[in-house]
């Protein structure tokens, strides 16, 4: 029983999560993302993050949970969160306050205004993007639509977030991204691989409506070298890069054992 | 909004080449105690634009930071306490951040800056 109580206190409590008609309430996707962070908690603590950023914080359930689950053991961590929806950052503020947590909030599109000065400085980025495939014109709508409208294959906003995350992540930075099968997570890993990131699916969950993946990305020198080599190879050999890709590749496991043992 | 966040924000309006630092118009400033963490301060020191922090904290009513710094000052507990207070404990609760080049105001309400651009600014 005692263990159960400790476990429960590690993440945000639904009854303390604030809400607003124009803000997406925590749902299966939010729970999956927080479960993935919980499962990776020991690694996160060992990572000693200075700056943690959530892009698209919605109700604040995820950033509050991250702050709680890292807690005092990560006392050097500073939390930030952005959302394009002004109601969402307001609700996030209330959710954080109800849990006695603090995160710096910015009402902005992805990380507009932060990209220049925060470049190469963020150790952990967490994203539950608008991933639902919708007509393209719904992307960029304000209010609650912005929390789910993902355009073609649900990729429009994800594809905007990835280069920003690449810019913001520190040398040791990690990105946790939630995706839907329809988003083609393998292709997302391939895109990130070209930027020098290794990746691993750290949680998969099928709900009645959707199949979710949480992918963790990190900069990997071996991946970068392999990509450069394959670019040289591809000049003479026109293989698609997919053949050599990505999870669970040996370089991933090699890197993991190096980082975490 | 902490001054750490202010130090990380710049104006992204189309055509603006020098959008940093944003000027602060302070209507309401609050102080909130934050646990002191030496490692965090030492980590952040290299990333901070010092003059922007000094000017911002003066605007917020705190003039204790030295104008010039060098990394050896991180050995001084007195310096670290002042740095900690300016960086993390002073909050701009209500007011605005002003683009240094265009004068465009980004409102700060309930401690949250609104950096969204209008269509003709993107």
UniProtKB/TrEMBL annotation, chain A:
<dbReference type="InterPro" id="IPR029063">
    <property type="entry name" value="SAM-dependent_MTases_sf"/>
</dbReference>
<dbReference type="GO" id="GO:0008757">
    <property type="term" value="F:S-adenosylmethionine-dependent methyltransferase activity"/>
</dbReference>
<keyword id="KW-0539">Nucleus</keyword>
<dbReference type="Pfam" id="PF05175">
    <property type="entry name" value="MTS"/>
</dbReference>
<feature type="domain" description="Methyltransferase small">
    <location>
        <begin position="48"/>
        <end position="132"/>
    </location>
</feature>
<dbReference type="InterPro" id="IPR007848">
    <property type="entry name" value="Small_mtfrase_dom"/>
</dbReference>
<keyword id="KW-0949">S-adenosyl-L-methionine</keyword>
<keyword id="KW-0808">Transferase</keyword>
<dbReference type="GO" id="GO:0032259">
    <property type="term" value="P:methylation"/>
</dbReference>
<keyword id="KW-0489">Methyltransferase</keyword>
<dbReference type="InterPro" id="IPR052190">
    <property type="entry name" value="Euk-Arch_PrmC-MTase"/>
</dbReference>
<dbReference type="InterPro" id="IPR002052">
    <property type="entry name" value="DNA_methylase_N6_adenine_CS"/>
</dbReference>
<comment type="similarity">
    <text>Belongs to the eukaryotic/archaeal PrmC-related family.</text>
</comment>
<protein>
    <recommendedName>
        <fullName>Methyltransferase small domain-containing protein</fullName>
    </recommendedName>
</protein>
<dbReference type="GO" id="GO:0005634">
    <property type="term" value="C:nucleus"/>
</dbReference>
Automatic annotation (TrEMBL), chain B:
<protein>
    <submittedName>
        <fullName>Uncharacterized protein</fullName>
    </submittedName>
</protein>
<dbReference type="InterPro" id="IPR039127">
    <property type="entry name" value="Trm112"/>
</dbReference>
<comment type="subunit">
    <text>Interacts with TRM9.</text>
</comment>
<dbReference type="Pfam" id="PF03966">
    <property type="entry name" value="Trm112p"/>
</dbReference>
<comment type="similarity">
    <text>Belongs to the TRM112 family.</text>
</comment>
<dbReference type="InterPro" id="IPR005651">
    <property type="entry name" value="Trm112-like"/>
</dbReference>
């Amino acid at each position: 029983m005692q263990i159960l109580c400790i476990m429960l206190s590690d993440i945000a409590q639904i009854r303390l999560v604030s809400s607003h008609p124009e803000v997406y309430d925590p749902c299966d996707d939010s729970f999956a993302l927080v479960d993935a962070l919980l499962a990776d908690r020991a690694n996160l603590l060992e990572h000693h993050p200075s700056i943690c950023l959530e892009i698209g914080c919605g109700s604040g359930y995820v950033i509050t949970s991250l702050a709680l689950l890292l807690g005092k053991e990560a006392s050097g961590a500073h939390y930030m969160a952005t959302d394009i929806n002004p109601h969402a950052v307001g609700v996030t503020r209330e959710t954080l306050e109800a849990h006695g947590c603090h995160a710096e909030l910015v009402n902005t599109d992805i990380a507009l205004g932060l990209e220049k000065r925060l470049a190469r400085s963020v150790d952990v980025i967490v994203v539950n993007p608008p991933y639902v495939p919708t007509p393209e014109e719904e992307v960029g709508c304000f209010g609650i639509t912005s929390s789910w409208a993902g355009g073609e294959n649900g990729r429009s906003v994800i594809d905007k977030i990835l280069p920003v995350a690449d810019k913001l992540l520190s040398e040791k930075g990690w990105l946790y991204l939630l995706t839907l099968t329809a988003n083609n997570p393998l292709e997302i890993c391939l895109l990130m691989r070209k930027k020098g990131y290794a990746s691993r699916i750290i949680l998969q969950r099928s709900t009645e409506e959707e199949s979710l993946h949480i992918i963790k990305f990190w900069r990997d020198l071996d991946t970068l070298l392999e990509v450069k080599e394959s670019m040289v190879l591809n000049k003479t050999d026109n293989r698609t890069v997919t053949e050599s890709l990505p999870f669970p590749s040996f370089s991933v496991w090699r890197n993991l054992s190096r980082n975490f043992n | 909004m902490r001054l750490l966040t202010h130090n990380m924000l710049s104006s992204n309006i189309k055509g603006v080449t020098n959008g940093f630092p944003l000027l602060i118009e302070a209507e309401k400033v609050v102080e909130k105690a934050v646990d002191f963490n030496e490692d965090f301060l030492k980590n952040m020191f290299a990333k901070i634009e010092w003059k922007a922090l000094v000017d911002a904290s003066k605007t917020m009513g705190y003039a204790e930071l030295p104008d010039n710094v060098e990394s050896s000052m991180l050995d001084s507990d007195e310096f670290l306490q002042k740095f900690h207070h300016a960086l993390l404990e002073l909050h701009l609760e209500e007011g605005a951040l002003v683009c240094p080049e265009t004068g465009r105001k980004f409102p700060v309400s309930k401690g949250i800056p609104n950096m969204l651009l209008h269509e003709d600014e993107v």
